[in-house]
């Protein structure tokens, strides 16, 4: 499997992706908002885009569909329940469905509600797994729930699916928010030395050559995975004095998401 992460350079800081089979040159475009950059990259690599995948229905992820499909004739894949909000879906995906690209690439659809209720992530079946996670999981952060989502569902996705992925799973999110997210981690957990070092290393990185994190690193620097951290809990108690003495992880996650909404 070959992965091309494409930095759009737009105001929303989107990443687009091409996932290709090295044997056949067939490729899938993931959330190809900047269809021109995606098509140009495919031409440069000699790839044929045969599928488009939308992780969810927001316009900054679907806005390139029409132009991409007009140029390539690709089939459009999205969540099985997204047909009413994404025009022209050819295949609706449910949890556990398999997506194949060419002869060698196989990905599993994960039903990951929270940011929206019709959000799909793709997990590659490769020696080093890769997760194409849209706006559910960001480098050092979590998606918001403002436009059709729910924080309770986002918690269930994090705790029940993402936290259980192999530690070496590579993270390919829909946006470059790593610097801001690391600053939020440090606001919540000032003694997180790994987050401090990473912010120093990547705070001014060029998103065109962005750091690709993995689940093991996320568990160290992403406050939404650090629900048992004494520092995180102590910091929450300063803001929410009525927090129970030993809060459960769901409560910690929801309070963190509430704080991040206005941070």
Entry keywords:
six-stranded mixed sheet, 263 residues, alpha/beta, five-stranded mixed sheet
Layout of strands and helices, then pairs:
Elements: E1 2-7, E2 15-20, E3 26-30, H1 35-45, E4 48-53, H2 59-62, H3 65-72, E5 75-79, E6 91-93, E7 98-101, E8 105-111, E9 120-124, E10 130-134, E11 137-138, E12 141-142, H4 151-160, E13 170-173, H5 178-188, H6 193-202, H7 215-221, H8 230-239, H9 249-261
Parallel strand pairs: 3-4, 4-5, 5-6, 10-13
Antiparallel strand pairs: 1-2, 2-3, 7-8, 8-9, 9-10, 11-12
Q: Would you give an account of this structure?
A:
32% of the residues lie in helices and 23% in strands. With 263 residues, the protein is of the alpha/beta class. It has helices at residues 35-45, 59-62, 65-72, 151-160, 178-188, 193-202, 215-221, 230-239, 249-261, and strands at 2-7, 15-20, 26-30, 48-53, 75-79, 91-93, 98-101, 105-111, 120-124, 130-134, 137-138, 141-142, 170-173. Strand 11 (137-138) and strand 12 form a beta hairpin. The chain has a six-stranded mixed sheet with strand order 1-2-3-4-5-6, covered by helices on one side. Strands 7-8-9-10-13 form a five-stranded mixed sheet, with no helix packed on it. Strands 11-12 form a two-stranded antiparallel ribbon. The protein is built from nine helices and 13 strands. Helix 1 runs parallel beside helix 3 and helix 5 (178-188) packs antiparallel against helix 6.
């Amino acid at each position: 499997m070959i992965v091309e992460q494409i930095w759009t350079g737009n105001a929303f800081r989107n990443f687009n992706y091409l996932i290709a089979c090295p044997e056949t040159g067939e490729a899938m475009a993931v959330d190809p908002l900047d269809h021109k950059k995606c098509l140009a990259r495919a031409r440069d690599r000699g790839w044929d885009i045969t599928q488009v995948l939308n992780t969810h229905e927001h316009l900054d992820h679907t806005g390139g569909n029409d132009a991409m499909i007009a140029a390539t004739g690709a089939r459009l894949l999205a969540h099985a329940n997204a047909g009413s909000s994404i025009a022209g879906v050819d295949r609706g995906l449910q949890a556990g469905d398999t997506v194949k690209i060419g002869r060698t690439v196989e990905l599993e659809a994960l039903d990951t509600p929270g940011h929206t209720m019709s959000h799909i992530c793709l997990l590659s079946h490769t020696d080093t797994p890769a997760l194409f996670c849209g706006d559910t999981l960001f480098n050092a952060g979590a998606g918001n729930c403002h436009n059709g989502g729910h924080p309770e569902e986002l918690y269930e996705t994090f705790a029940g699916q993402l936290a259980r992925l192999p530690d070496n799973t590579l993270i390919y999110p829909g946006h470059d928010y790593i610097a801001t997210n690391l600053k939020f981690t440090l606001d919540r957990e000032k003694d997180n030395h790994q987050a401090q070092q990473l912010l120093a290393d990547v705070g001014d990185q060029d998103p065109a050559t962005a750091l690709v994190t993995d689940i093991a690193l996320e568990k160290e620097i992403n406050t939404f995975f650090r629900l048992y951290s004494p520092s995180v809990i102590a910091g929450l108690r300063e803001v929410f004095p009525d927090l129970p003495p030993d809060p459960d992880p769901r409560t910690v996650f929801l309070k963190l998401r509430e704080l991040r909404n206005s941070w």
